[in-house]
What we know:
The protein is an alpha/beta fold. It has two helices and 33 strands. The longest helix is centred in the first third of the chain and has 71 residues, at 2-72. It has helices spanning 2-72, 252-262, and strands at 79-85, 88-94, 101-110, 113-122, 134-143, 148-149, 153-155, 159-161, 169-171, 175-177, 183-184, 188-190, 200-203, 205-211, 214-219, 223-227, 231-236, 269-271, 274-276, 280-282, 285-288, 291-293, 298-301, 305-307, 311-313, 318-321, 330-334, 338-340, 345-347, 356-360, 371-373, 378-391, 396-408. The strands form four sheets. It has a 19-stranded parallel sheet that branches. Strands 6, 9, 11, 12, 14 and 16 form a six-stranded parallel sheet that branches. Residues 1-10 have low confidence and may be disordered. The chain is 20% helix and 41% strand.
Amino acid sequence: MTNKSLKYSSCGRQKGQTAIFLIIFFIMFIILSTVEFLTVSQQRVSGNIIKSISSYYVAESGIEDALWRLKKNWAMPATSYTLNVDQGKAYVNIGGMLGGSRTIISRGDLSNMIRKIRVVYEIKQDAINFHYAAQAGSGGVKMENNSIINGNVYSDGNIEKVQGVGGVATITHSAVVSGNGNIIKSGIIIGTAGTNPPDQAKAYACDGATINGNLYYVSGGSSNCTINGGTTTVLEAGPPYPISSEPFPISDAQINAWKYGASCGDNCIFNGNYTVNSSVSLGPKKIVGDLTIGNNVILTLTGNLWVTGNIIINPGATVKLNTNYGSTSGVIIADGTITSENGSLLLGSGTAGSYLMLLSTSTSVDNSAAVTVKNNTEGTIFYASKGIVRLLNKIRIKEIISGWQIYLDN
Length: 410
């Protein structure tokens, strides 16, 4: 009986040891499985984070690509396109112009991980302030009979009526003539009676003109004009002059920046004379030669133009900004002369605040004007700070004239 009892006790201990081993094994299995699960989960989370970050950079690449395209041609039409970025894709949408800005949305997709970026690209106007309807350099303002400037005038040279006996030339608001010895000459009417505050004329001297407002002249000068307001003597002549010179509103650096934008790459450069014989859209573009715009055609600018030669806008032609310009403005630059023939139209985008400027860098100061605008032309801004801007009969300039000299025919 005793030996049999001992045999049963040994078997029970073996079964107990097996149970403990199984429990330990089970616990270790659970621990290892948990660790593996956590490791795999962590790897999956880490992988998703990496993919998400990568997807963000894919979307960002789409934004950078869109900004590059707009930098080349910010007036480009609204568009959507797909950009391949390594193993991902960026789905890019460039919105149309709205209030001087454009919205860009880029959706990055890498292994079905989606990230989206939205930016607003603002088109800032160049900081150019035109303070006068007409601004002339030392060549002054020359006006023939019955010519009218409706607005304020500034000049570094004389303001005078030329050619013809009798008749007058009129500046409807104030006029300023800078420098020592420059005057307002006879045959000129300046100002409109009854304005509040009164219009005014400022010059070293006034000789024979009619001032419908107040006159300010320099001590040492003279006042031999008809004054329908008050007369005030300002400081002595000599530097610093009491009526100081003002620079032109557009710097050479700004003009060079516009030129650079027009010649943005090989596809933007045309070598040779360029003739527009049918209605087209053009820009940005550098033309190494002359530009001729044919009769009665429409040239729509989608970017600035730089012409190294001369520009001729033939009768009945229309040059206008694309509607994508919105409230912003555009410019055509010529290193040579610009001639706008009879009946041509020069227009902005159609949105308020949008203007087209024709700018010549020509240094012509003889009878060959840098900018010539002929009969029945309608335009916005004409600019030639180193040359003559000459306006012939029946011209409606809606905005600004700036030139070394401004010459108005009858």
